[in-house]
Amino acid sequence: MAFGSGIEWTESTWNPVTGCDKISPGCKHCYAERLAERLQAMGQPNYRNGFALTLQPQMLELPLRWKKPQTIFVNSMSDLFHEDVSLAYIQRVFDVMRRAHWHRFQVLTKRAHRLAELSTQIEWSKNVWMGVSVETADYVDRIDDLRATGAHVKFLSLEPLLGPLPKLKLNNIDWVIVGGESGHGARPMDPAWVADIRDQCARAGVAFFFKQWGAARTRRKRVASWMVERGTRCLRSLECAAVRGTAVAQSDIVDTSLQSDDSIGRAANVLAVVSGSGAASAGAWGAHSAGEDAAADFRNVVRRADRDFARHVEPARER
Fold this sequence. Notes:
Layout: E1 12-14, E2 17-18, H1 31-41, E3 54-55, H2 62-65, E4 71-74, H3 87-99, E5 104-109, H4 112-118, E6 128-133, H5 141-147, E7 153-158, E8 175-179, H6 191-204, E9 207-212, H7 217-223, H8 225-230, E10 233-243, E11 246-255, H9 261-271, H10 292-318
Parallel strand pairs: 1-4, 4-5, 5-6, 6-7, 7-8, 8-9
Antiparallel strand pairs: 2-3, 10-11
């Protein structure tokens, strides 16, 4: 487990399973594999088998001991729907999530076909978000499998984005995450792919979250150029919610440094906000309801962000 996870779209991680196998191009530079090997070398008992798939039943009830409500990414170091994880064990994980009703759980898989097969044998509580990873157009069928499940909230992780994803079918999808690949050997992501997905989400009224540019450092700097022109003031956060077509938000403008990739990524995320019922921040999905004034404020911020995106990012992307 981890408190204060570095993953931008969640708060903590919980790993009742560790280890996995590579099944598609997005797995090539798996961060979890590298981390598992380091933890094994450090003698961490949960990683005694390195990145080989290992059930961790001693971790099952950990979220029940966390009393503060939080958003928890389930199996950041594995895939719950791996073929070697039994249905009975998967059901135990879902039972814990059901009992820990004060938390919000995010489950993500590349094994969407098995997810769809087992869906009717899973008790889907409302605090469980189910997502699938799609890295290229060859794997968009995973979205259909996700749509066929009984999950109350369904999301896509288009990360690492390795190619364009035109004409996505976003009906019954609640949230889309986009990000480039990071780490040694990372493959670049074309900003045009991101802008296209952002626009598709805007048209479909689906919440959009931009995580990172990844390896394309020069592109990140271009995206941040509009902030340089304005000085060191930038939008750091845009917390909003898209609940059945009603957008509510809180936003603040703070002084921040442009020296780090993190600040550039945060600013890029603000620029990637979608209009209508879209949302830009992972924290947004946990945002408390606000009144009509907050909704109006949100729409104004969205319009400003969209204007800045068109004025500064689009020209930079073309250079």
